[in-house]
Amino acid sequence: MELLIDIVLLAILGIIAVAILWTRHLFVATMLSGAYSLTSAALLVALDAVDVAFTEAAVGAGISTVLMLGTLTLTRRREKATNRRVSIGPLLLVIVTGALLIYGTVDMPAFGDPNAPALLHVVPEYLAGTRDDIQIPNIVTAILASYRGFDTLGETAVIFTAGVGVLLLLGRRREEDEEAGTRRPEREA
Amino acid sequence: MRHHLVLRVVSKLLIPFIILYGLYVQFHGDFSPGGGFQAGVIVAAAIILYALIFGTERAKQVFKPQALMVLAPVGVMIFALVGYYAMAMGGAYLDYDWLAGDDTTGQHIGIITVEFGVGLTVTAVMTLIFLAYAGRTHEIDDDDW
């Protein structure tokens, strides 16, 4: 049953991806990419990664789709018409790269294999420590916030820096204009 | 979107519950899936929904960008200060064992405080990025899509 759900969800992902490539209407492409994220979130729920699914649904399907729509209002809604002939070189390159990536997965341990190398290094220590020392049921939180607290501090700083960067580029100028009561003409590149 | 009555009513009903769910994900992160980052994006999504339905200007009055600009670094600082506090109590940086009398309580306090800092920063930054983008877009008619 789970296999069936996985196959259906992956098929939907494939169909949406082809549709995004196919459409020339950028609004349709944006909404489809939101649908792609939502389907990915469903797939992550099927993989028991509910917290990642939260993030995918909120950021991928929600916030980034809205940001893309905001961008669309500044640009045009239709892709410029280009001729769609198949170029052999890039196609070959993509096929070879894809085949290599799939070949690379052959060596990987099966999904959820308890003897996978990644699960034998520090994971047993974390599992035992979370049970005995930290005593909270959610091991992911224990690892992220406590064992890997330094990494998470770095990630939070990265998010903060990203926000500062966007505000420096987009935020400030508008406010100055509003304070001055006049709006300078938009400097479009 | 002034004339979309259904959207306005439904989102008015939904937004408090989305924020409540975000708080649940935030403070129940020790016991169920979730944590600061997930909670932050959920709350930010609720604020963005509010801004989409009721307009950016009104959203800026409720969630003031100046306040959000303060909250974003405060979240990172809460996280960093927990680390220094653990150092001051005699442990290593971010070693929550030293935050309280016994190790387990210390870990609980450390994790919940640190996650709160993450949630604060993520909510503020996500909302600020959206408001920065939305400030540049001009109003367009529904028919234009």
The helix/strand series of chain A, from N terminus to C terminus, equals HHHHHHHH
| H/E element sequence of chain B | HHHHH
Please bin the fraction of helical residues of chain B. over 70%
- Total helical elements of chain B: 5
Helical fraction of chain A: over 70%
Strand content of chain B: under 5%
Number of strands of chain A: 0
Structural class given helices, strands, pairing of chain A? mainly alpha
Helical/strand content category of chain B: mainly alpha
Major sheet of chain B: none
Identify low-pLDDT runs of chain B. none
Number of strands of chain B: 0
| Count of alpha and pi helical runs of chain A | 8
Describe, in plain words, how this protein is organized in 3D.
The complex is a heterodimer of chains A (189) and B (145). Chain A is mainly α and 189 residues long. Chain A has a domain at 1-81: Up-down Bundle (Four Helix Bundle (Hemerythrin (Met), subunit A)), CATH 1.20.120.1200. Chain A is built from eight helices and no strands. Chain A has helices spanning 2-22, 26-46, 50-74, 88-106, 117-120, 123-134, 139-147, 149-180. In chain A, helix 1 (2-22) packs antiparallel against helix 2 (26-46) and helix 7 packs across helix 8. The longest helix of chain A is centred in the C-terminal third of the chain and has 32 residues, at 149-180. Chain A is globular. Chain A starts with a helix and ends in a 9-residue tail after the last helix. Chain B has 145 residues and is mainly alpha-helical. Chain B has one domain. In chain B, 74% of the residues lie in helices and 0% in strands. Chain B has helices spanning 5-27, 36-54, 56-62, 65-88, 103-136. In chain B, helix 4 (65-88) runs antiparallel to helix 5. The chains are: A mainly alpha (189), B mainly alpha (145). At the A-B interface, helix 3, helix 7 and helix 8 of A face helix 2, helix 4 and helix 5 of B. Chain A: It is found in: Cell membrane.
